[in-house]
C-alpha cells in the first residue's frame, strides 16, 4: 500500500442550491487535486458530509470519483458508523470497483468500550474484502481509540493503518513507535502534520488539501524527504489559515475557500449551514497574507 503514503484529501461534496450534488464542481475538484500532486483521494469522509447523504447518492459520487480519477491516483471510500451489522449489510450492496481501501470511523454516539471498538472492527475485518483504514476522531465520535486498541487491531492483516485525529501527539508517538511492519499512520490534523511527519507518520488525510493541494502537498512531501526547511516554510504559510477552516465546523470553512478559488458554492445539507460573513472575511484576509489570493479577488 505504498501508493497510499503522502497526501490524501477528504473531498467535500459540492451541492447546488436545491440540495442536489453538483457533479460539475465535483469533477473540477477531483482534477484540481490530482493535477496539483495529491497522492490519493477519499470519497465520503466526514468532510464529504457523509452523515446526510443517502446510500444511493454516496454510490453515485463514488462511481463518479473513480471515473474521473481514471487510475491516476487511488480512491479510498469512507464507510463507517455505529451500527456494525448495518455497515456489513450495506457494504455488500456497494459497487466498489476501482476502490483501493475503506476508511472506517470508530463507532460514534454509542460510546463503546475499547473491547467494543475491537469487536466492531474485527467484525468489519471479517466481512470486508477490501483493506480497512481505522479512523480515530474522538472530537466527533465521543470516544477515543486508545493506542493499545489501535495496536491490537493493527495485528489483523486486513487492517492496514489508522487515520489518527485525536490531536494527541503522545498517542500518535506510541502507535508509530510500536506498530507492526507495514501498518501505516496518517494524520487527521492538518495543523499538526509537520510535527507528526517528523515523528514518522506516513502522511495525512487532509481538509485544507481540497483547496490548496499544491501548497499542502509540498509541505508533506518535503517533510517525507527530510527537507524540513521547506516543510516548515509551508507550515508557517498555512498555519494561520487551518484553524479558521474549523472555527464554525467542517466543511463550511473549506467550502468558503473553494468558492473563493472558483470551485463550487458554499451550499451544505442541513443541519450544516455556511460560515458567517465575519469568518469568511478573516479567511480571505489570511489567504491574501499567505500569498494565495490576490487582494483584488
Describe the structure.
This protein is α/β, with parallel strands linked by helices and about 300 residues long. The protein has one domain: Aldolase class I (TIM Barrel). Helix content is about 45%, strand content about 15%. It is built from 13 helices and eight strands. The protein has helices at about 25-35, 55-70, 85-90, 115-125, 140, 145-155, 170-180, 195-200, 215-225, 230-240, 240-245, 250-260, 275-290; strands at about 5-10, 40-45, 75-80, 100-105, 130-135, 160-165, 185, 205. An eight-stranded parallel beta barrel has the order 1-2-3-4-5-6-7-8, surrounded by six helices. β2, α2 and β3 (about 75-80) form a beta-alpha-beta unit. α12 packs across α13 (about 275-290). It is globular.
Task: Summarize the topology.
Layout: E1 6-10, H1 23-35, E2 40-43, H2 55-69, E3 75-78, H3 84-91, E4 99-105, H4 114-127, E5 132-136, H5 138-141, H6 147-153, E6 159-164, H7 169-178, E7 184-187, H8 193-199, E8 203-206, H9 213-224, H10 228-238, H11 242-246, H12 252-260, H13 277-289
Amino acid at each position: 500500500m505504498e501508493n497510499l503514503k503522502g497526501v490524501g484529501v477528504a473531498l467535500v461534496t459540492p451541492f447546488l442550491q436545491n440540495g442536489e450534488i453538483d457533479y460539475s464542481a465535483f469533477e473540477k475538484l477531483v482534477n484540481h487535486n490530482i493535477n496539483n500532486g495529491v497522492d490519493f483521494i477519499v470519497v465520503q469522509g466526514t468532510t464529504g458530509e457523509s452523515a446526510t447523504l443517502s446510500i444511493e447518492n454516496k454510490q453515485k459520487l463514488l462511481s463518479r470519483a473513480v471515473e474521473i480519477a481514471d487510475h491516476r491516483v487511488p480512491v479510498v471510500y469512507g464507510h463507517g458508523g455505529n451500527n456494525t451489522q448495518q455497515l456489513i449489510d450495506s457494504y455488500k450492496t456497494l459497487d466498489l470497483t476501482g476502490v483501493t481501501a475503506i476508511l472506517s470511523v470508530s463507532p460514534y454516539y454509542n460510546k463503546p468500550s475499547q473491547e467494543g471498538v475491537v469487536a466492531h472492527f474485527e467484525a468489519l475485518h471479517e466481512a470486508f474484502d477490501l483493506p480497512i483504514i481505522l479512523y480515530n476522531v474522538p472530537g466527533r465520535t465521543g470516544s477515543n481509540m486508545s493506542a493499545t486498541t489501535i495496536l491490537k487491531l493493527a495485528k489483523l492483516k486486513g487492517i492496514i493503518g489508522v487515520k489518527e485525529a485525536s490531536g494527541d501527539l503522545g498517542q500518535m508517538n506510541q502507535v508509530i513507535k510500536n506498530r507492526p511492519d507495514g501498518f501505516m499512520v496518517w494524520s487527521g490534523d492538518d495543523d499538526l502534520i509537520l510535527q507528526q511527519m517528523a515523528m514518522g507518520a506516513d502522511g495525512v488525510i487532509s481538509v485544507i488539501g481540497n483547496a490548496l493541494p499544491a501548497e499542502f502537498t509540498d509541505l508533506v512531501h518535503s517533510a517525507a524527504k527530510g527537507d524540513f526547511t521547506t516543510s516548515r516554510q509551508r507550515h508557517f504559510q498555512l498555519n494561520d489559515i487551518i484553524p479558521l477552516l474549523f472555527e464554525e465546523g467542517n466543511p463550511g470553512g473549506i467550502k468558503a475557500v473553494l468558492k473563493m478559488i472558483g470551485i463550487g458554492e458554499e451550499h451544505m445539507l442541513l443541519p450544516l449551514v455556511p460560515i458567517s460573513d465575519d469568518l469568511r472575511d478573516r479567511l480571505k484576509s489570511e489567504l491574501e497574507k499567505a500569498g494565495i489570493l490576490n487582494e483584488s479577488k
